[in-house]
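Re: the 145-residue chain
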Amino acid sequence: MSVPASSGATPATGILANIAPWTYALLRVGAGLLFMQHGLQKLFGWFGGVDGAGASVQLVSQMGLAGVLETFGGLLLVLGLLTRPVVLVLAVEMLVAYVKAHLPQGAVPLQNRGELALLYMTIFLFFFAHGGGPMSLDAARSRRP
């Protein structure tokens, strides 16, 4: 495929356009799977649990609610289903987690160990603004006649 010289496009531009949907999906699925681990750790004691020995949290508690949001919100993010409302809730959860758990330990995220909460919040806000992407169930649902 040749690209007109006046368009400013290069062969690399075409390659990037071809892989963009895949990398978008990779970010969405990767973030969702990684986020789910936090919920599975809280709810079921997986990955060492909340104490390193496999303990889980009470379902009817603030940490239990966080576990539910992380597990099922992460799953919906992986699927790209109801992406915008889900990630808005998850972004708020991460902001609350940062303010309640990390900020009292100091103002610098790297020192108060809150950088992961802020990174998740930033990723979720990106998906809130841009949706689930072309390789999501949201996109498949919008293409239905």
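Residues 84 and 130 are 8 Å apart (CA to CA).
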